UniProtKB/TrEMBL annotation:
Name used for this protein in its record: Sugar phosphate isomerase/epimerase family protein
Signal peptide per UniProt: none
Domain Xylose isomerase-like TIM barrel: 60-280
InterPro entries listed in its UniProt record: IolE/XylAMocC-like, Xyl_isomerase-like_sf, Xyl_isomerase-like_TIM-brl
Keywords (A to Z) from UniProt: Isomerase
Species of origin: Sphingobacterium tabacisoli
Entry's Gene Ontology molecular function annotations: isomerase activity
Entry keyword Secreted: no
Annotated Gene3D superfamilies: Divalent-metal-dependent TIM barrel enzymes
KW Isomerase (keyword) present: yes
One Pfam family hit: AP_endonuc_2
Amino acid sequence: MKSIKAVLVLATIMMTGCSLFKSDRIAETKQYPEEALGWKLGAQAYTFNRFTFTEALDKIDSSGLRYVEAYPQQIIGGGIDEKMDYNMSESSKQYIRQLLQKKNIILEAYGVIKTNNDDDWEKVFKFAKSMGVRTITCEPEARLLDYISTLCDRYDIRVALHNHPNPSYYWDPEVVLNSVKDRSIRMGAAADIGHWVRSGLDPVACLKKLEGRIYHLHFKDLNEKGNKKAHDVHWGTGVNNVPGVIAELKRQHFKGMISAEYEYNWDNNMPDVKKSVENFRGFVKGDELFLHFLEK
């Protein structure tokens, strides 16, 4: 009899625990609806380039985000004058690890890397591996693509080729597609949908061309199309087809990081990022099927 009671008590505890876990999971999914789709919504720290990396993490946290794409030129801060450069000291790396853990923010990506020194590329990969970075965003010279392909496989890290506006080398998605063709499956695109709009391109059509090789996004909405001087606006209020982009990413079953990169109102753009994130999640929650699945 005692053994039966013990089993019943244990079963009750397990059911209660499962119920609490399920409730927590549903609550978290409602707060971060994009994560149910495998999307890691975060920020490119360049958005807050008027501040240190330490201060940028505070702003990312206040924007309701939990992922960061660091960029190499940013001062670390917190009493450290070094930059987020891949040559940083071990003590600075340890400071960053502790800071990220304290803020509950994940260093998911690193870039955009450009270097004329061929020897730097392996240093970049070694740094990324030591910090748990999963994706390096970059714009390497075409002659180095085979070498970088081998580094992707050696270090098990993705490389995502980033597009600046025309006439930069990777501005056209066809160039990106040809650059990753017949190379490591870990090589793909860091799709900057804002720069595509600046180049006069349709971001949804560009995403379709790159289907299966989109590993990272820089997310923007702009006030004007085909103008390199166009500036950022709150997502969903400009000329970029934000609902269409989200729908296309869903259709492709995209998995990866989406970096907010708000390059306007530099000294006080955290409220702009926060509002854009709220708009983004509103668009994502337009399809509630995944919430119904969790509640079953």
